[in-house]
Amino acid sequence: MPITKSAKKALRQNLKRRARNRQKKRKIKALIKQAKDFIQLKKTEQAKKLLPMIYKSIDKAAKTGVIKKNAASRKKAKIAKLINKETKSP
Question: Contact 32/75 with Cβ under 8 angstroms?
Answer without folding.
Answer: yes
